Amino acid sequence: MNALQGDLGWSQVGKEPVLKAILGRFPYTLELALYALFPVVGVGIWLGVKAAVKRDKFLDHFIRIVAIIGWSFPDFVFGLLVLMIFYSVLGWFPPGNLSLWAEQIVKSPNYLKVTHLLTIDALINGRFDIFLDALRHIVGPVITLSFLWWAYLLRITRSSMLEVLSKEYVRTARAKGVPERDVIHKHAKRNAMIPVVTVAGAMVIGLLSGTVIIEVIFNRTGIGQLAARAAVELDYATVLGTTLFYSIILVLGNLIIDILYAVFDPRVRLS
Amino acid sequence: MEKTPLLSVRNLRTYFYTEDGIVKAVDGVDFDVYEGETLGIVGESGSGKSVTSLSIMRLLDPKGKIEEGSEIIFNGKNLLSLSEDEMRRIRGNEIAMIFQEPMVALNPVFTIGEQIMEAILLHQDVDRKTARHMAIEMLKKVGIPEPEKRVDEYPHELSGGMRQRAMIAMALSCRPKLLIADEPTTALDVTIQAQILELMKELQKEYGMAIILITHDVGVIAENADRVVVMYGGKVMESADVYTVFKKPKHPYTWGLLNAIPRLDIEQERLYSIPGMVPDPLHFPPGCRFSNRCEFKENRCEIEMPDLAQVEPGHMVRCFYYKKVENIHNSSKVGGAK
Amino acid sequence: MSEPKPRSEFRRMMRKLLRNPSAILGFSLLAFFVLVAIFAPYIAEPVNPQMLDENGKPMRLDNPYIMPVITWSSEPIPPSKEHPFGMIQGRDIFYGVVWGTRTAFYIGLTVTLISTAVGIVIGSISGYYGGWIDEILMRITDVFLSIPFLLAAMVLTTILGNGLDKVMIAMVVFGWMGAARLIRANILQVKEEQFVLAAKALGIKDFFIILRHILPNTIFPVLIQASMRMGSLVITAAGLSFLGLGAPLGYADWGSMLNFTRNWILGTSGSSMTYWYAVFYPGMAMVLFVLAWNLVGDALRDVFDPRLK
Ligand SMILES: Nc1ncnc2c1ncn2[C@@H]1O[C@H](COP(=O)(O)OP(=O)(O)O)[C@@H](O)[C@H]1O
Ligand code: SF4
Ligand SMILES: [Mg+2]
Q: Is the shortest distance between the CB of B138 and ligand 1 below 6 Å?
């Protein structure tokens, strides 16, 4: 009952009400997921189409092998490697949200917080230095999070594309004299995206769960890290609260997917 | 008959190089198509009809290769020596094709109009507005009611017959010289079948195009073709004008196909059908490819492959013992004509 | 076009499997891990060199899965002759990697077996009875499928308490849905094909007849699915251990060994690969283990069920 009124109890780990702890940390997680989404979708679909078109050729085998290796990397192993190489060795992408100096500025009262996303707010405030600093901190987690999921999307895209390429309407297009490039990118790809959209739900789940471990590794204070710490300390209210929150996001995500589905498939649009 | 043909297929051999071996789907096919006529290609399913038509369009799977020595001469050009780009400009423009399943042959995510316009815009120098206008005209021509409305509908909003009409509209939108129709009515109801075939005949008269009508349905051939090629096991077994094929077939396979009357020697309700099945191309019998099912075969048939030979002007038969079939015609009226 | 005989069909598939390079790589890797797991006591003797018995020999460990602390310096120590993978938190990484193989097999196989069995039971009931029972069970399946797995496991472990067994319970509870759906679909198909007439009056005997019909057809898809899941199961279990929810500190488990490492890496910056071995060896063990299962699952799927591609 209390939960329905937005009262999720007291968070021991956050030392504040659970809802407040979640809402305060959510922008960090959202920013990470958003940045990861683009490379995942872009690279995954692009390579999946390439592999399908070059079926059983060298490129296809190569892409598939890289994908299966990528898919076999536990996110925390990959994250630790990224941290070791880009932070310990190269010193480029440090863990955390921001450097100390930037953190102080961001916390100051006259720093505008519009979106609560670090990079966007920095641009709004015209602080390009803070923007770069925030970017430096988010690159590592983004690489890690996207690395797992482009492989997944690639596989789905490839098999969906292979199926569509064997369809009769693709042959009809060729019989009309449509150039091969358009056959693939216009006729086949539009259809191949329909099943890809259906797995987007699984992907959203994956991206969200992925943030838990990745935020822990990169010391990013999002809700994933909150949930992980709460679980270790058996802070029941916080774990339940965050899971509830994730589930709500999932429902919203599925709603968006349903809409996308209708965009891609006219047969759904009608009914 | 001394016109030059619009299309001549000579010694066409199309093999698929699969993991299980070389599939000789088409293995030496010859025929001509003249301007304005309808050539029927008939044969049981699996005899190589579709592969023949896809070879003409050069739309085979990557595994399929048209072997050296094959020739496909269209309008004086050997299609097999054209570049992919030159070939692309012929497809949909000078040679168009329609397929068996109108349910799956149209792209589900584009409207009928978009799909017809695409063909027009590819091959003709017109703007989108004109193309749309032409697409609506085409839809009207193939007998689709309310074409201005239908042009913006998706394939799933049309019935099977309407889709096949839309396919025909798309195929004919650039006024091809040759239309290849691969089982165009097999998936449709009988009444709609007749309508579609009638429509094709009308449009053929209007446009003066040649049609290759591919089907396993002997009846469809009888009513629509001018000349007939009978295929079996990737080879032409018999070819002649439609009257000759139906009244005086000389090949045992053709005789079997036409022989849809109850057998007298066995008490049987069902219509006669050729015993056995089409052999798959990996396991053709040695010698004549029909020898494992042929009622007229002799020892020689299992050793040697007969040639396609001219038995009378314009009538080709691939059989050592075609005279036996001839004799049946003479002695009784059991086989053949209906 | 005669029906291919099942036996020769099977042999043809085996031949195809053996011609598939990734299948060979996968099976070899798997064989290697099996050997390491079997011979773990000989590869890394379960003794504590710090504690000697009356004969002056190192004492055998009571529980070989608890890595012995052999030095009191907790900082990682680079590889040396005695400790080829180096040491972390006073424990030998080589020892942990070797015995961790057993832990990985133990978790993976147990969870896969039990969750598949649960899935088969639920799927059979659902497909066999149909109607509202099917409706309810499939709704439940959908709900379970829509919960993020890692989070669900976290919730359950906070309820049950931390520990490897709790993690495994959580993974069974949230891991049976795939098998259930597969079995159900197959039962429905068989029902439609052969039992349409008898479907009204099926007794318990018929239930077993259905199962007998289905299992031979379904066993490969289920196996393929299970082997494909092994990898992600092991990753999830290790992830939970990495977060500190699974195996206790010092347990021979790849995930919890990496948990040690993380703090040391966070502590260094802009200098060197100081602690590379502490990530590399346990990390590679995990990657190769998961890769082996994924390769095998992928190859099996390609060969036995091209539809699933
Ligand atoms: N892509 C392909 N790969 C391998 N074999 C094929 C392929 N396409 C057709 N075939 C084989 O070629 C033979 C002839 O097929 P097809 O031309 O489709 O027959 P039809 O159209 O007369 O029914 C069949 O035995 C078929 O198995
Ligand atoms: S050659 Fe022999 S087997 Fe072939 S069709 Fe003629 S009689 Fe029959
Ligand atoms: Mg065909």
A: no
